[in-house]
C-alpha cells in the first residue's frame, strides 16, 4: 500500500510541476470532476448541481470513475471543483487544494461471501475490493483491519458501489464494501449469501467539494452558489426523503434506472436521513476534527490529529458565507 501511495504521489507531484491547464474556465463557468459512477446516492449532489446551473453558473460535469482521476483533473487544470475527501492528497503530496464543504458522511457496509468468510478475522491475508485509493471505502477497511489486528493480502480498486455489488453476486469478488442501497440490493437478490460485517460508528467525510486555493479566491460568487445549493438540497431531503424522487424526476437524473427505482431511492434517502449522513450545515471545523481522527487512525494522514490545523485542509469562508445567509439547521 505504501508503494502504491508513493507512486500516486510521484505522479501528482509531476502533474503539479508540469501539467498545463487545458482551457481555463471563464467567469461563470465551473467544471466539476465527479470521481465516481453516479448512482442513487448521487441524487442530492446532482440536484444541487442542476440548481446551481439554474442560478446562472455554467456547470460542466465531468464523470470520472475514480477519485484519483478527479484529483488529478483538479491538479492538472482540467477541472475546477472535485468531489471526494482529498486529505491524503493535501498532506502527503502538498497539493494546494482546500475542501470547502462537506456533502455527506461515511455510510458504508463491508460485505463478505458467507461461503468463505464469517467475520473480520477470516479476512486476514485475503483480498478485498474498495472504490479507489484514498477513498472513504479504503479508509473504512484499513481502519477495521487495524482495529481487528489483521492484514489484507491485497486491495483491489473497483470503482462504483453497484459494480462491486455485481462482482460479489458473480463471485469474482468475495469481500468488499458497498453503500446502503447496494447492501439492500444484495440482501434482496441473494438472501443469506452475504454477511455484513460490523463497523464502529463513523462520522468522517464521505464526499466533500474541493478546489485549488486560486480557484476559491477568484470564483467566490460561483462557489457560494454551489455551497448554498448543496446545503439546501441536503436539508430538504433530510426533512422529507421523498424530495429525492422529486429531484430525480424534475431534473431527469439517472434515467437508465427507470421509474421502478423511485421506491428504492426514497427508501435509501429515508435511511440516510435517519442516520444524519447528509451534511445539512456543510461540515466545517467540527467535521475537519472528526476527519483528522478517522483518517489518522486509518493511516491516510500522519501526525497527532489534535495538532493538525483546519486551515491547512479547509477553506471555511464559502461555508461561513452560506450559513450566514441560510442559517444553521
UniProtKB/TrEMBL annotation:
Residues 1-24 form the signal peptide. The keyword Electron transport does not apply. Its main location: periplasm. Keywords: Signal. The keyword Disulfide bond does not apply. It is found in: Periplasm. InterPro entries: SsuA/THI5, TAT_signal. It comes from the Bacteria. Residues 53-242 form the SsuA/THI5-like domain. Belongs to the bacterial solute-binding protein SsuA/TauA family. This is ABC transporter substrate-binding protein. It comes from Chelativorans salis. The lineage of its organism: Bacteria, Pseudomonadati, Pseudomonadota, Alphaproteobacteria, Hyphomicrobiales.
Amino acid at each position: 500500500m505504501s508503494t502504491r501511495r508513493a507512486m500516486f504521489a510521484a505522479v501528482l507531484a509531476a502533474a503539479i510541476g508540469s501539467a498545463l491547464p487545458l482551457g481555463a474556465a471563464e467567469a461563470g463557468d465551473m467544471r466539476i470532476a465527479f470521481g465516481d459512477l453516479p448512482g442513487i446516492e448521487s441524487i442530492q449532489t446532482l440536484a444541487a448541481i442542476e440548481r446551481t446551473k439554474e442560478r446562472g453558473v455554467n456547470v460542466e460535469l465531468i464523470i470520472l470513475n475514480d477519485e484519483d482521476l478527479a484529483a488529478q483533473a483538479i491538479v492538472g487544470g482540467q477541472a475546477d471543483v472535485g468531489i471526494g475527501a482529498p486529505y491524503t492528497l493535501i498532506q502527503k503530496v502538498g497539493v494546494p487544494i482546500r475542501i470547502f464543504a462537506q456533502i455527506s458522511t461515511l455510510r458504508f457496509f463491508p460485505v463478505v461471501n458467507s461461503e468463505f468468510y464469517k467475520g473480520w478475522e477470516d479476512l486476514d491475508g485475503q483480498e478485498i475490493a474498495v472504490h479507489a485509493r484514498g477513498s472513504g471505502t479504503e479508509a473504512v477497511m484499513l481502519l477495521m483491519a487495524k482495529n481487528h489486528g489483521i492484514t489484507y493480502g491485497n486491495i483491489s480498486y473497483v470503482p462504483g458501489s453497484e459494480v462491486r455489488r455485481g462482482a460479489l453476486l458473480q463471485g469474482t469478488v468475495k469481500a468488499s464494501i458497498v453503500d446502503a442501497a447496494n447492501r439492500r440490493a444484495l440482501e434482496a437478490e441473494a438472501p443469506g449469501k452475504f454477511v455484513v460485517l460490523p463497523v464502529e460508528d463513523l462520522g468522517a467525510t464521505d464526499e466533500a467539494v474541493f478546489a485549488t486555493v486560486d480557484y476559491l479566491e477568484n470564483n467566490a460568487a460561483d462557489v457560494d452558489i454551489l455551497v448554498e445549493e448543496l446545503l439546501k438540497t441536503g436539508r430538504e431531503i433530510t426533512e422529507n426523503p421523498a424530495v429525492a424522487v422529486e429531484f430525480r424526476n424534475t431534473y431527469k437524473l439517472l434515467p437508465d434506472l427507470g421509474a421502478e427505482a423511485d421506491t428504492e431511492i426514497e427508501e435509501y434517502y429515508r435511511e440516510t436521513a435517519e442516520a444524519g449522513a447528509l451534511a445539512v450545515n456543510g461540515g466545517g471545523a467540527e467535521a475537519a476534527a472528526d476527519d483528522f481522527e478517522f483518517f489518522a487512525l486509518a493511516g491516510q494522514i500522519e501526525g497527532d490529529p489534535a495538532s493538525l490545523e483546519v486551515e491547512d485542509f479547509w477553506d471555511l469562508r464559502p461555508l461561513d458565507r452560506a450559513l450566514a445567509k441560510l442559517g444553521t439547521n
